[in-house]
Known about the structure:
The complex is a heterodimer of chains A (378) and B (272). In chain A, helix 2 (110-120) packs parallel to helix 4. Chain A folds into two domains: 20-247, 3-Layer(aba) Sandwich (Rossmann fold), CATH 3.40.50.300; 254-376, CATH 2.40.50.100. In chain A, strands 6-7-8-3-9-10 form a six-stranded mixed beta sheet, with helices on both faces. Chain A has a five-stranded antiparallel beta sheet with strand order 13-12-11-14-20. Chain A contains eight helices and 20 strands. The radius of gyration of chain A is 25 Å and the shape is elongated. Chain A starts with 21 loop residues before the first strand and ends with a strand. In chain A, 37% of the residues are buried. By secondary structure, chain A is an alpha+beta fold. In chain B, helix 3 (56-89) runs parallel beside helix 6. Chain B has a domain at 59-228: MetI-like (MetI-like fold, Orthogonal Bundle), CATH 1.10.3720. With 272 residues, chain B is mostly helical. Classes of the chains: A alpha+beta (378), B mainly alpha (272). At the A-B interface, strand 6, helix 2 and helix 4 of A face helix 7, helix 8 and helix 11 of B.
Amino acid sequence: MAEPAQQKVFAPWEDPSEKPIIRFEGVTKRFGDFTAVDKLDLKIYRGEFFALLGPSGCGKTTLMRMLAGFETPTEGHIILDGQDVAPIPPNKRPVNMMFQSYALFPHLTVWENIAFGLKREGMEKDKIEARVSEMLRLTRLEQFAKRKPHQISGGQRQRVALARSLAKAPKLLLLDEPLGALDKKLRQETQFELMDIQEKTGTTFVIVTHDQEEAMTVASRVAVMDHGKLVQVATPAGIYETPNSVYVADFIGDVNIIEGAATPNGDQVEIAWAEGLAPIVAKSSEPIAPGAKVHFAIRPEKIYVSREPDMERANRVQGKVIDIAYLGNISTYRVRLANGQMISASMTNARRLSRRDFTWEDEVWLNWTDTAGLVLTR
Amino acid sequence: MNRKLSWFNVTSLTLGFAFLYLPMLILIIYSFNASKLVTVWAGFSTRWYGELLHDQQFLDAAWVTLRVGVISSTFATILGTAAAYVLVRGGKFFGRTLFSGMIYAPLVMPEVITGLSLLLLFISIGLDRGIVTIVLAHTTFTMCYVSVVVSSRLMTFDQSLEEAALDLGASAWDSFRLVTLPIIFPAVISGWLLAFTLSLDDLVIASFTSGPSSTTLPIKIFSAVRLGVSPEINALSTLMIAIVAIGVITASLVSKGAIKRQREEELAGNRT
Ligand SMILES: Nc1ncnc2c1ncn2[C@@H]1O[C@H](COP(=O)(O)OP(=O)(O)O)[C@@H](O)[C@H]1O
Ligand SMILES: [Mg+2]
């Protein structure tokens, strides 16, 4: 996609001189005595495609609605482009929102829906014409301009909603579960379309989703939320490779979690996790207190399954294959260890044609290096 | 749907409808009676309708009724819609429950009491009774009906549409005028028609609040009948029945059509 010359990585969050477009400073939102958003600090940078990820009810929509101006923070400040937005009503904010329900005006045509915001700005007629045409082209809706929302399909309505919120060229576009109502195929198509549009327009996107795959696909950074708090904010790769907690590790993709007591040993940690079995050896970037209760997290694809123990890997445990999920390019083995713990391990198929596949009830060895997994203290 | 009705159902249906509509039917039939004697049939004629058109008193009363109806139902619609909007959309404000209860109170208030209290009010502020007082009185008592019709529509109205309008830069007034009002308009129109027919029908409140120069048709009919039923009155009543029927049928068609359309739109909205 990107030309080879453009190798500069987009990572404004790593540049301390970069000014964020949005800054949440200790933002709390309470409904009665229920805290929907809890002392939240967050910086989002210009041109980002920022994803808010979390289970239903964790406060994602509330966060968006505070940005759009439909809810006022109980405490704290939201700074947009250097300005505290608290006194600015929703219709004066340089922010547009694409609603979870699309909220298209049923009595207006597609064209009029898209032109609605431009007309409120008092833009000249021919400029409106031009801008709406541009939006229709961008979202490939040209032939539906004269239809009413109920005369087009769900995917098309979703694009109308997007076109309408993009028409005013907002500094910030909020997308609240924009693809929730679409089926999987249309959803994936639209994700790429969204990324394309975001790249073309350079608008900062904040997208809410509870679908981790979606967040990983579209976002420059992902924030994982839980009960009104941010658990981790990082790039999709960062979230996947180095989750900072069991919650995040578990939320994103498949992961094996093994509980144990830690004993630091140089830059390594030994985790006693099952009686009579060798401790797990893992590298940890953080210092860990001796005897601390930790969780060892390891992704299935980081485990090497073999018939004989692999002496090159620091960790080796034996178990029995209970279940095999064949997924075409990979197979996932569910293996029961001697202490009853179940571990998933996945292997790429046909990498070595000579290797005989494992079958049910086979005794196998699970092997992984000391850097394959993560030691999590929370 | 085309189930055969049992004799029991047929009988009860006939009885019920006869009970409801026989008096009106007789009135309508006799309005086309050629004879001056109300109870003696002397052949079909539209004579009394013609005579009605030359009766200045009736024409005056009709004109008063029409003006009162149009003006009062228009005011009632504006006020009733505004009240419904605030009560449904205003969020929680102090005394909201009290207000929403109070707006419906006139629905169950005996008309005599409404009429009497309005009369006392007009006398105490020194307002001469005439068209103005009837209009005010009718606005007062029909407004709550409009409010009921409009607020039931507003309750199912998707609030995110208004938020979307605000989000796109519309002022609160613009978002009401350009988004909410067009969508709830069928309900507003049925509210207006309901208010208009109520105003047309009203005898009790109008009797309290009308002056010598401002007799409405129901008052005219009522006072004329006390001197004996004339074929002319039958003709006039038939006309009123026709107008009211048209009003009620239109109102129900408008809201039915709108409901059907909205259901289609909703179904479309859920389709992906
Ligand atoms: N207006 C409100 N009044 C009371 N509680 C609310 C309101 N809006 C949201 N909440 C509550 O706040 C929590 C977070 O809601 P929301 O932000 O919509 O979650 P999400 O979008 O992550 O699913 C939910 O438990 C919800 O019930
Ligand atoms: Mg939500």
